[in-house]
Design a protein that fits this description.
Length: about 290
């Protein structure tokens, strides 16, 4: 796999986050609920330097609810609070300030014990890989659209705090993390969910990966969507997976001359519908 973030780019991203850590009490680490492993930065513990953290499993509306539950338990075992939510519609978002308060309770209690009557609001920073929903969540928490101009070159803007109720404040520009691409499966999973553009990889290979996974774990909703009759018996037989892709292509009219299936068009259709949740809810990684 040739995809690599330039080391300089990573160092800069990391430095920017660490500068922001000085300003805040709590980190909201945003991950994709369908990919709780691959959508995290593998160096996250090191980068956050022990800051209190809530793991927000965004796009939970698209993920398999049973698998999401297993992940919450897994994170709990690791000593982390994980909160599933859907920033796009706002479901679960109101629990975030509540969880933040719970996590910071000891610190707030200490301030109260010292006679500080009105402890200042909890200051938080959202971090996550591109496309995981950082802007959507910031806008949702702010209750309005915040123009994300801060990280654009040439645009100078001081840090702005966004009030979330009376007890929490959020930095208006999120910390951008990078996923780890060296493992080919991680690259494919990120591409399937739309976290990285499939153009970076080969669209047919990405769709092949998705179809193989759906056949194995979510055959019924997939077959229902495209009225597929025969489940491939041999998953390791590429021809059988390609035959499923062709059946989808025929169903959706992705044809070339001579009635042959346009596999690239079929691949785009599969990925578009999958990402839009048209084949039901799915998770691509389980903790066990
Ligand atoms: P980023 O700042 O982390 O880069 O991500 P951003 O908020 O731009 O969100 C990336 C895409 O994910 C957007 O879709 C957004 O609508 C979608 N999204 C964010 N949160 C959720 C969620 O909880 N559930 C679902 N289903 N989608 C979510 P887009 O196609 O790029 O744009 P648009 O169609 O919303 O215009």
């Amino acid at each position: 796999m040739t995809i690599q973030w330039f080391p300089g780019h990573m160092t800069k991203a990391r430095r920017q986050i660490q500068e922001k850590l000085k300003l805040i009490d709590l980190v909201i680490e945003l991950i994709d609920a369908r990919l709780p492993q691959s959508s995290r930065n593998p160096m996250i513990d090191e980068i956050l330097q022990g800051k209190p953290r809530i793991v927000v499993m965004n796009k939970a509306d698209l993920a398999d609810p049973e698998v999401t539950k297993q992940w919450i338990a897994e994170f709990k075992e690791q000593g982390l609070t994980a909160l599933p939510l859907d920033a796009a519609t706002g479901t679960g978002v109101k629990d975030l300030p509540v969880q933040a308060r719970l996590l910071m309770k000891d610190k707030i209690d200490k301030q109260l014990a010292k006679g500080i009557k009105n402890p200042r609001p909890i200051r938080a920073l959202i971090v996550g890989i591109p496309n995981v929903g950082k802007s959507t969540l910031i806008n949702r928490l702010a209750g309005r659209n915040i123009a994300a101009t801060g990280d654009r070159p040439g645009v100078t803007k001081g840090q702005q705090w966004i009030k979330v109720g009376t007890e929490m404040e959020l930095l208006d520009t999120p910390g951008i993390l990078w996923p780890k691409f060296e493992d080919q499966n991680v690259g494919y999973r990120l591409a399937v969910t739309g976290a990285i553009k499939e153009e970076i990889l080969n669209v047919e290979e990405v769709a092949f990966y998705a179809v193989k996974y759906l056949v194995q774990y979510y055959w019924e909703p997939f077959a229902d969507r495209f009225e597929l009759k025969e489940k491939p018996e041999e998953l390791e037989e590429p021809d059988q997976i390609v035959a499923v892709m062709e059946a989808v292509g025929r169903k959706r009219g992705c044809l070339m001359g001579g009635g042959r299936v346009d596999l690239e068009k079929a691949s785009r259709t599969i990925l578009r519908e999958l990402r839009a949740g048209k084949m039901g809810r799915y998770s691509m990684e389980a903790p066990y």
